């Protein structure tokens, strides 16, 4: 197009001021205010200007675009004024999907968050004494109860061999504090217990957890020096012993959250580490990461030691996430010997890493479900507990309800995973909807499902879209039906 013709088109563009005053935008103005509407009109006109410049619009095209100006401005307003953070349907079968927000909160947790957020609260106020209190009390009381309940008095534990008052298995000597996430918990613990000194870690545990959490990096930031012992596949208790010197402040065990080392491997037991730590008078810390609070064997998950197991076993401090197996909000919890936790509480880093009232509210409600043994109220645990048969029945029902002749659905066996760096070797048997759509590739179909509202996130494998209803709330099943119908129509 000639530049003369282009400048002709530019002249046809109405001015932003003129448009803002035009009657056709009166309703939008009333609804969204002058600032938002003016900005939206400006963006739409700027887009048209660009399209003229690049020769994408001729006279007829511009005429059409100007006729549809209202619609374009409305769409622009919707884009700008709608939330960016929005719900999606997780049909991946990964229960603690880090990119999808890990654990969904329970209704009870959310109700308590609402209460704490909408009004003032006794977050740091002792109502009886009428003076300043500590925010930790809200979580600590429930945690002690859980620890006490999991420890019948007649049971002989490893820790009962330890002098009285030093045993972390005695609930009254265990404290818990909460920080922003588990990475922050590890940073705070290392800085408090080992700044300027050395921390002994097995080479087999120098892990990177998704989202770039690396023990050596966190160690460097904490001001402690990492002393690696053993080899990637084998570390013996003697390796730890040889690594100890006058600068050693801490023995650290890191849970191998997202990988497994199999074959020719060796790792000292917690008992051996506890015994060594006691003998040399050095605290032992365990970064559990996932940090289950109940034995997950009844949910089909083997070999995940719980937070309470570690404390009962004599570990001095454990760190774990609030939004992994615990099934609560994003948080990092530190539980352990009261005198060590007290040192963390007075560290100025704690002030920088602490969490707000809404997080306390969500954790408190989640822990209360554990105290009442109402595990079914915690969505992550409920999802783990679903049987393959239940999921299969729902999948069949969704499959039957999809009417489109273009969509072919098969119900097949598959596996769901825990995710979030928990129980890397555990897979839960499930039934999947395996979907194909005639004339549409699996990648294209999955893209269309993501474009539905709310977006449906699925897996693509071997030319099929796989949907796992384990991580879909039953009340969302009909949305999967709608999304499949809609995707086939496009
Ligand atoms: C997940 C995990 C972390 C990081 O926890 P965030 O809550 O994501 O900060 C650290 N260590 C281990 C072992 C983990 O599994």
Structure description:
The structure is a single chain. The chain is an alpha/beta fold and 490 residues long. It has three domains: 3-81, no CATH class; 107-377, Aspartate Aminotransferase, domain 2 (3-Layer(aba) Sandwich), CATH 3.40.640; 385-489, Aspartate Aminotransferase, domain 1 (Alpha-Beta Complex), CATH 3.90.1150.180. It contains 20 helices and 17 strands. The strands form five sheets. Strands 4-12-11-10-9-5-8 form a seven-stranded mixed β-sheet, sandwiched between helices. Strands 13-14-17-16 form a four-stranded antiparallel β-sheet. Helix 3 packs across helix 4, helix 8 runs parallel beside helix 16 and helix 9 crosses helix 10. It is globular. The model is unreliable at 153-168 (pLDDT under 50). Bound molecules: pyridoxal-5'-phosphate. Pyridoxal-5'-phosphate is lined by residues 181-183, 209, 211, 213, 254-255, 257, 287, 289-290, 321, 332, 421.
């Amino acid at each position: 197009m000639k530049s003369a013709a282009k400048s002709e088109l530019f002249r046809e563009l109405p001015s932003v001021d003129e448009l803002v005053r035009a009657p056709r935008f009166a309703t939008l103005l009333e609804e969204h205010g002058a600032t938002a509407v003016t900005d939206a009109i400006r963006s739409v006109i700027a887009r048209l200007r660009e399209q003229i410049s690049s020769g994408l619009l001729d006279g007829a095209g511009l005429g059409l675009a100007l006729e549809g100006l209202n619609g374009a401005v409305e769409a622009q307003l919707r884009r700008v004024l709608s939330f960016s953070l929005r719900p999606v349907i997780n049909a991946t079968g990964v229960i603690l999907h880090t990119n999808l927000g890990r654990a969904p909160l329970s209704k009870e947790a959310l109700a308590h968050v609402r209460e704490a957020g909408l009004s003032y609260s006794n977050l740091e106020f002792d109502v009886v004494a009428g003076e300043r209190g500590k925010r930790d009390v809200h979580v600590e009381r429930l945690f002690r109860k859980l620890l006490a309940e999991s420890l019948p008095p007649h049971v002989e534990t490893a820790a009962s061999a330890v002098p009285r008052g030093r045993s972390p298995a005695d609930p009254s000597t265990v404290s818990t504090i909460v920080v922003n996430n588990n990475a922050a918990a590890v940073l705070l613990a290392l800085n408090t217990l080992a700044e300027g000194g050395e921390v002994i870690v097995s080479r087999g545990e120098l892990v990177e957890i998704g989202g770039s959490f690396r023990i050596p990096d966190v160690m460097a930031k904490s001001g402690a020096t990492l002393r690696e012992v053993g080899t990637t596949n084998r570390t013996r208790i003697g390796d730890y012993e040889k690594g100890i010197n006058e600068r050693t402040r801490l023995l650290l065990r890191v849970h191998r959250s997202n990988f497994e080392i199999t074959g020719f491997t060796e790792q000292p037991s917690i008992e051996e580490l506890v015994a060594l730590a006691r003998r040399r008078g050095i605290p032992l810390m365990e970064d559990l990461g996932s940090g289950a609070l109940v034995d997950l064997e009844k949910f089909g998950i083997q070999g995940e030691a719980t937070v309470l197991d570690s404390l009962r076993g004599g570990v001095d401090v454990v760190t774990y996430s609030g939004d992994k197996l615990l099934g609560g909000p994003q948080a990092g919890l530190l539980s352990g010997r009261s005198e060590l936790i007290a040192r963390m509480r007075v560290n100025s880093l704690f002030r920088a890493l602490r969490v707000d009232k809404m997080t306390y509210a969500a954790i408190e409600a989640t822990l209360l479900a554990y105290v009442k043994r109402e595990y079914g109220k915690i969505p992550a645990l409920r999802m783990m507990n679903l049987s393959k048969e239940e999921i299969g029945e729902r999948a069949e029902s969704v499959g039957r309800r999809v009417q489109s002749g273009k969509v072919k659905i098969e119900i097949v066996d598959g596996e769901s995973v825990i995710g979030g760096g928990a129980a890397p070797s555990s897979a839960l048997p499930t039934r999947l909807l395996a979907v194909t759509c005639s004339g549409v590739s699996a990648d294209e179909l999955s893209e269309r499902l993501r474009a539905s509202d709310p977006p449906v996130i699925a897996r693509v494998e071997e030319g099929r879209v796989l949907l796992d209803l384990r991580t879909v709330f039953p009340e969302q099943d009909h949305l999967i039906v709608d999304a499949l119908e809609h995707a086939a129509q496009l």
